[in-house]
UniProtKB/TrEMBL annotation:
Signal peptide: none annotated. This is Oxidoreductase, short chain dehydrogenase/reductase family protein. Belongs to the short-chain dehydrogenases/reductases (SDR) family. One of its GO terms (molecular function) is oxidoreductase activity. Pfam families: adh_short. Keywords: Oxidoreductase. SMART domains: PKS_KR.
Amino acid sequence: MMRRLKSLRLLKNKIVLITGGSSGIGAQLALEAAHRGAIVVVCARNKEKLEEVAHKCLILSGRPSFAYELDVTDPDQTDQVLDQVRHEVGEIDVLVNAAGLGEMVPVVNQNRKSMAKMVNVNLLATMYLSRCVAKQMMDQGYGAIINVASLAGKLPTPNSAVYSATKAGVIQFDNILRMEVADYGVQVLTVNPGPVATHFFAAADPDGSYLSHVPSWMIIEPDSLAKTVWNNVGYKTREINVPGYTSAIGWLYQVMPGIGDWAIKKFFDFQQNKDLL
């Protein structure tokens, strides 16, 4: 089984399905996979942007690429798209759950609708897609499931309570899914990036109050993140924390949470944010 899993290290002619593939991290992962010779399938709600990404993938890989319109929060549509992919493209070798959204505001200022939407997109959709594709990969005896979580799922920061909770949920879901599928040759890789230079914050943090507290040297370039992710597929890697030093910070927070809370509130100038309530 490990030999078949190792075949994913090159990605050539492997079928890679990516949700959230029309922009941001998902699009960059699609382009890098295509550069490595994969047959890329991108899914998202914006069909026009999806087709642009798929066309770029075709040029990069010289292989067919596909775009499927998908609302990941709709399980019936998810089932339908997965059936289409299997019949029109083939069995999925790598699944990437990169669809996600956030809202960086104090939790007391969030309405239930926006809270539910984050849970549905970031957590429930990731769990359902992983569950569906894991069954197929167990039958074929190999595969990789890559779920994009976040550093926010390990380190609490003000104004991101619900978003962070969904990402913490993804991390724990992966920890258990990994145990359940490991004996079938399926890798479960959790990706925990810090802030990435995409349009994510344009919607999640429109006034810049969250991002303004993040120093520029902490911002991650999406193409660099994509290379790091694909360099770890087909191995026994469980988790990627980017930047790498955040692994140590996360460990320190677990050991000294009181000091961690004080440092994080100081870093994010949390008293100023409380005054906005």
